[in-house]
Amino acid sequence: MQFVSQRLLRMSVCAALGVISFAASAYEGDLKRGRLYFRQICTTCHQTMLGKAIAPNERTKADWTAYVKADKHDKSGKSNPSLKYFTTKAYRETIKGSNKAAAKLLDANDAELYADVQAWLHYSAKDSDNPSGCQ
Question: What's the predicted TM-score (pTM) here?
Answer without folding.
Answer: 0.76
